[in-house]
């Protein structure tokens, strides 16, 4: 399988080179050159596979023989053996029409583990095979950092440095990152905001000499391996539900920030999984809701919400969707992105908007409505939703029609966002793994926000 850029100016690459490139060199995003098409027969055959077996089949379609099957199987098995639930991503029924797909049983209790456990093992594999050094540099507003660190801690050939805004991530998120005692992990706690951290990273990656000299690699959600890993649970959940209810019309409701998770669902659908509707749930940062409803993609004012991992104005994976919306026309995408840069917005014509609305339904959840959803599901079903999951469930309640089944993706364990849940007087007991973090020593270096100071730290560490 070859990978190409949404802007069309990169020679087709193999899977491993695509992973290592991260952002495409022409500024676009990498996508598979062709999307594998699954027959009804294949879907039937996959119906009873375990999660790792299914992951192996799906990765094989996108990697082909670039990684020998036995080695790929080992990577997949190692990646999902760290999950606490035997099903990896179990599906829980709340009522006839609503299911929750629990994606938070990995090491850091957030769905990002599903992709980053695999990417961590993949990077270690590439380092071993090609005898190369991999230095990961990333910024986080909370979940990605913890998950990326867990993905590579203690792995040979890899070092990881994560920047987070000093005292601006949740307590549990901070502890998850900084209690890791491993010589290949460096936590820099930056005196500034998440945007400052992201700007620093962007500028360091733009310094090509520095980037090459120190073998810098990215782990952010534009990495195509992350998307591919996330397609698996759409298939898995679909099979779980249709096993009992073969004719079900199945929707997925996805709490969205960078458009990564929902793009994975879109890809699964394009591969042939008969998803009925993809419901795009946002919080008050609703650029994507407005795009689906009005055909205008334009950032609004930043709003702080109870679901901070979705507090995003510019969705970094959105360009991948534009590529398919415009019939895989890289020139059209290049023009749209140039328009976005120049005018700060993209406006699509009526026929394209119709196509968007055939692909997605959207709903933006207000802050109070998010908390109301947590309260009402707790009261009615005894099920505690985290605030991100609550956005997906609230959107499902608004959009799904009678007789349809909606699977709401649960992207984090509620313990990670206890600060918000307490506002409704709900007390939860932390899982023992999270409780244990409070007694561990922390390892982090507090730094100012200048690029030079960060560079000094990196040079010492690498
Ligand atoms: C990252 C994240 C999201 C958003 O996922 P995207 O792929 O950026 O759309 C939603 N919920 C949680 C808990 C997250 O960590």
Taking the sheet with the most strands, its summary is: 6 strands, mixed
CATH topology of the domain at 91-109 and 225-422: Rossmann fold
Count of β-strands = 15
What is the residue-mean pLDDT, rounded to a whole number? 95
Query: For the terminal residues, how far apart are their CA atoms?
Result: 33 Å
**Number of alpha- plus pi-helical segments:** 20
What structural class do the secondary elements suggest? alpha/beta
Low-confidence stretches: none
Radius of gyration in whole Å, from Cα?
Answer: 21 Å
Query: How do the strands of the widest beta sheet line up side by side?
Result: 3-4-14-9-10-13
Q: Helical content, roughly?
A: 40-55%
Per the principal axes of the C-alpha atoms, what is the gross shape? Answer: globular
Q: What percentage of amino acids are in beta strands? A: 5-15%
CATH C-level of the domain at 91-109 and 225-422: Alpha Beta
CATH architecture of the domain at 91-109 and 225-422: 3-Layer(aba) Sandwich
User: What small ligands are held by the chains?
Assistant: pyridoxal-5'-phosphate
What does this 3D model show about the protein?
47% of the residues lie in helices and 15% in strands. By secondary structure, it is an alpha/beta fold. The protein has a domain at 91-109 and 225-422: Rossmann fold, CATH 3.40.50.1100. The strands form four sheets. It has a six-stranded mixed sheet, sandwiched between helices. It has a five-stranded parallel sheet with strand order 8-5-6-7-15, sandwiched between helices. A two-stranded antiparallel ribbon has the order 1-2. Helix 11 links the parallel strand 9 and strand 10. The radius of gyration is 21 Å and the shape is globular. Bound molecules: pyridoxal-5'-phosphate. Pyridoxal-5'-phosphate (PLP) is lined by residues 110, 112, 143, 221, 255-261, 309-310, 388, 411-412. Pyridoxal-5'-phosphate (PLP) binds next to helix 11.
């Amino acid at each position: 399988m070859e990978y190409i850029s949404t802007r069309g100016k990169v020679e087709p690459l193999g899977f491993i080179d695509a992973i290592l490139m991260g952002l495409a060199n022409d500024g676009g995003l990498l996508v598979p050159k062709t999307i594998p098409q699954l027959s009804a027969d294949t879907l039937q055959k996959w119906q009873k596979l375990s999660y790792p077996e299914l992951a192996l089949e799906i990765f094989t379609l996108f990697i082909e023989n670039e990684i020998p099957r036995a080695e790929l199987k080992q990577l997949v098995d190692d990646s999902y053996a760290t999950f606490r639930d035997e099903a990896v991503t179990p599906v829980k029924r709340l009522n006839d029409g609503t299911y929750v797909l629990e994606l938070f049983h990995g090491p850091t209790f957030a769905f990002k583990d599903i992709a980053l456990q695999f990417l961590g093992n993949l990077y270690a594999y590439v380092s071993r095979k090609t005898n190369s050094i991999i230095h990961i540099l990333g910024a986080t507003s909370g979940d990605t950092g913890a998950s990326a660190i867990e993905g590579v801690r203690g792995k040979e050939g890899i070092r990881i440095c994560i920047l987070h805004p000093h005292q601006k991530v949740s307590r549990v998120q901070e502890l998850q990152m900084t209690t890791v005692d491993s010589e290949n992990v460096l936590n820099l706690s930056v005196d500034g905001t998440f945007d400052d951290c992201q700007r620093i990273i962007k500028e360091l990656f733009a310094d090509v000499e520095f980037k090459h000299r120190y073998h810098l690699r990215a782990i952010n959600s534009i990495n195509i391996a992350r998307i591919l890993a996330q397609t698996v649970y759409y298939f898995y959940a679909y099979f779980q539900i249709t096993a009992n209810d073969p004719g079900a019309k199945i929707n997925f409701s996805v709490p969205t920030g960078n458009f990564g998770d929902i793009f994975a669902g879109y890809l699964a659908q394009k591969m042939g999984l008969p998803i009925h509707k993809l419901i795009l749930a946002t919080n008050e940062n609703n650029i994507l809701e407005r795009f689906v409803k009005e055909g205008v993609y334009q950032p609004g004012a930043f709003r702080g919400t109870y679901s901070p991992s979705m507090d995003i104005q510019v969705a970094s994976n959105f360009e991948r969707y534009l590529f398919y919306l415009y019939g895989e026309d890289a020139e059209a995408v290049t023009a749209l992105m140039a328009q976005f840069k120049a005018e700060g917005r993209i406006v699509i014509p009526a026929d394209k908007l119709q196509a968007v609305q055939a692909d997605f339904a959207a709903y933006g959840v207000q802050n109070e409505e998010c908390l109301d959803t947590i309260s009402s599901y707790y009261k009615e079903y005894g099920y505690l939703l985290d605030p991100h999951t609550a956005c997906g469930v609230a959107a499902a309640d608004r959009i799904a029609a009678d007789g349809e089944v909606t699977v709401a993706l649960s992207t984090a364990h509620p313990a990670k966002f206890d600060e918000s849940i307490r506002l409704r007087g709900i007390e939860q007991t932390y899982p023992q793994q999270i409780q244990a973090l409070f007694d561990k020593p922390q390892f982090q270096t507090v730094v100012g926000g200048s690029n030079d100071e960060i560079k000094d730290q990196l040079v010492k560490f690498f």
